[in-house]
Structure formats: C-alpha cells, structure tokens
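Expect sequence, tokenised fold; for instance:
***
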Amino acid sequence: MNIICLGDSTTYGYMISRNKVWSNILNSKFTEDNKDIKFINKGINGDMISGMLSRFDIDCINNNPDKVILMAGVNDIFTCRSLEKIKDDMIGIINKAIKNNIDIIVFSPIPFIKKAFTFFEASNMIDEFENVLIEYIDFIKSYTKENNIKYINTYDIFINNILKYNNYYDIYFDGVHLNENGHHLFALEIYKELKYLLI
C-alpha cells in the first residue's frame, strides 16, 4: 500500500533529517509490524492548500497511490487568506481524490504555540490566527463526518496527548515547526490512529 502525504512544512519536516520525519518513522513502525505500507512524503515548506490542489495531479494522481493523507491550511491562515477559499480548496482536493478512486485521510492542522510564535513578525494577529484555525478545524470535522471521509483530529491529539505531557519547547523549534522530538511523538500518536484506519 502506497500512501502519499500531501502537506506543508509539518509534513516535509522543516529542518529535520529525512529519517526523523514522522512519515519515515511510520514507515519503520509498519515495517516492524510486517505491513507492506509505504508513506511517501510530498510536503513542501511554506506551501498553501491552493498549491497542493494545483500539484495534486503531479504529486498524487501520477504516482497512483492507494491513499492520500492531506494536512494543510495553516500557511493560508498565516497569510490571511479567506477561510472560505481555504475550505473550497480542501473540498477540491477531496473531490479530486474521490474522482480518481484514491482513498483520502484528512488530518487537521496541528496547534501553534502563541507564546513561542517567532516564525515571523505577526504578534498582533496571533489571536485572530488561532480563532480562524479553530473554525477551520471545526469545518473539517463536520465536512468529513457528513461526507464519510476519514479524518484524524491531530489538533486534539496534540492538545490532549502530546502537549498535556510534554513541554512545548521540547516539541517545537519556534512555536510552529516541530523539532525531532515533536516528529517522533507525532508519529507514535498517528501510528496508533492509522493502525485502525488502514486495516
């Protein structure tokens, strides 16, 4: 089973060695389980969901995957793109996958840490970014449920599991990007979820 991981820097693994990125850790975990499952990293640093929609044919359809994992939208929020356009592009990607008989699993964006947000100067927008992110995640949750699309709420996984038991500065570089430990913890949590979705 080949699974394309379509996303931005959280998927690509900003400043992370390739073998330490969550998708490669999942490859190792499923290999240990003797499962023929391969996660293919198609994340691009800084990409927006509109970019993922435009490259879906090249990065997904042309590679003939069995499944696609989509995790996108946070860069759109950080650049003040309208929530309606973000939603439309997400639906566009889902529809492209369905049309091409590709099973899609949607991940919510992960949380960013307001007090550690140093990726760029936008301190006066932090609360607004967070509000839009929550609204976007609520939309993903309702849309996937209504349309019978597989969904993993990775935002809640971080809040309720990872950040509950770990200091944010042991997980993030800058309040946005996961460090090596963050990718490791994320992979372990996602592995538990995917074991049931990939049966």
Summary: The first strand starts at residue 2 and ends at 7.
